[in-house]
Task: structure prediction
Amino acid sequence: YTRANILAALKQYSDYGVLTVTALGLNRSPLFDTLRQEQHDGRNPGADLYGVDQGIGAPDGVPPAAMVKGIGPDQVFRPTTPEEARKDVDQMIAEHTDLVKLWVDDFRNDVPDGKTYPMLPPAIYQAVIDEAHQHGTRVAVHIHDLAVAKAIVASKADILAHGVRDQPVDHDLIAAMLRQGTWYIATLDLDEANYLYAEQPELLSNPFVLAGIDPALRREFTDPKWRAETMAKPLTKASHYALSVNQKNLAVLYRAGVKVGFGTDSGAAPTRIPGFAEHRELYLTVQAGLSPVQAISLATGNAAALLHLSDRGVIAPGRRADLLVVNGNADENIGAVDQIDQVWQRGVLVSHGPVRLKN
Result:
């Protein structure tokens, strides 16, 4: 987690036409805060940056300590009492966080007999949500299961960050989300990325994909041993199931009128490639049953609305001229979004995509 690496990732996002990103909860301070302000000011190339320094998880729980190696244990608050939780929120507010982030998940990920981690108890996450709302700050919660989603919505959290992936959503959840205006982010690519490059190695010969993958990582992805081990993992079968459920739930919630945003969790694991993951998310969203225009709207106007950013997300007078220009009719064929011709940021041409098209 260095300045050079983060700036390189932000530039890669913008090359793929992703011009605003939000990082939820594993960021090193004060570097993250400094870069966030610099990106707001347009001082560096790359995507604008929003997010959370620290998130809040259970002691010995999610995210596992191994995930934050090199960042530091202080990057995840792990309160044991409601009073500690409120103090943690107060610190996040004092550091001008854009959102408050909670993890409420046992991380089993539908793997039979998989390892589970302790989850935050309701008294703790309710204290976090209440304290954040007293400061006028919204709360995004990492979830996986339907039961947790229902409990979190009942606690009046603002954003479900990740889709419900263990079973179909039900009327009670839908009604509660509609009543409270809860936002939903499916992150379909999160699970598919666990096996995508092992199952579809031909992607590693696609220049549009390859442009976003470090050479050392490509060598790992093309290693037959890595492919065989990935395909044999119980997580791969579970991830197929999770994606299928997630796609069906996304379609149901969208058609019910629930407010749906857009995200991928890209960058949080090596297989979730910054920039390309967002293009893949659009494809998976259309595969779930939304039209190309609906999918694009989730990633533009809806995403801006979720972040309360009224200066971007649509093409209109007075808005930022953040534009992705492609060769083809993306409103008819979502694959056309990969045919990037130009990327404009704040009215300035900043990229011709990760790969310059041959006309």
Notes: The two ends are 38 Å apart (CA to CA).
